[in-house]
Amino acid sequence: MKTTNILKPLVLSLAVAAAVAALPAAHAQTATQSAAPVSSSAATASSTAAAPSATSLVKVRGFVTGSPETVGFTGTAVVNSQLANDPDFNLPQLIFTLDMSGVSGFGSQSHAQYVITGPEIIQRRLAPSHAVEITFPFVVSGGSPLATQTGVASFAIDVDQNTGYITQASGSVSTPNF
């Protein structure tokens, strides 16, 4: 019974991803926004919204401390939003795809490069602002996938409630608290 409950979010995420991929091209409009850092002293960066769009390039940076070393991350995450109407219950949802593969890390002692793979898909009720936090695996570039470590990426995302387009986004990386 517990295994079935654990698999429900995964199955739902895959079903939503398949539905989004099957949408006609007219509904999957994307454009990129320029991204500029908010502050060089903070471990947070944001995109400057020239015009709302479904896709935003978000500068991300921060540190994950742990064993065997502290890893500093920097790069650009691709954040996509898709408005999903619900004709049965009239509760529109937003589907966020967070792709951190453009963010890489460097070890503080070894200077080894660390990489992040794969996107994360998150579903939220339609609202003007969202705080999204995901855990992500990372590994030394070319290293064993058995030596995976974990970081946390936090995003603040503002959207247009009529279109689901991103109007502003910022992101940071930190050490998980578990």
Number of helical regions: 1
What about the largest sheet?
Answer: 11 strands, antiparallel
Structural class, from secondary structure content? Answer: mainly beta
Measure the end-to-end span: 25 Å
Order of helices and strands: HEEEEEEEEEEE
Q: What ranges have pLDDT less than 50 throughout 5 or more consecutive residues? A: 1-51
Strands, total number: 11
**CA-based gyration radius:** 17 Å
Into which percentage range does the β-strand content fall? over 45%
Question: How many separate domains?
Answer: 1
Give the fraction of residues assigned to helices. Answer: 10-25%
Give the integer mean of the pLDDT values.
77
Shape: elongated
Briefly, what is this?
With 178 residues, this protein is mostly beta strands. It has one helix at residues 2-21; strands at residues 35-36, 44-47, 55-64, 71-84, 93-99, 103-107, 113-116, 119-125, 129-140, 149-159, 166-174.
Primary descriptors:
178 residues; mainly beta; eleven-stranded antiparallel β-sheet; elongated
Characterize the structure shown.
The chain has 178 residues and is mainly beta. Strands 1, 2, 3, 4, 5, 6, 7, 8, 9, 10 and 11 form an 11-stranded antiparallel sheet that branches. The protein has one helix spanning 2-21, and strands spanning 35-36, 44-47, 55-64, 71-84, 93-99, 103-107, 113-116, 119-125, 129-140, 149-159, 166-174. It has one domain. It is built from 1 helix and 11 strands; from the N terminus they run H-E-E-E-E-E-E-E-E-E-E-E. Mean pLDDT is 77; it is low at 1-51. The two termini are 25 Å apart.
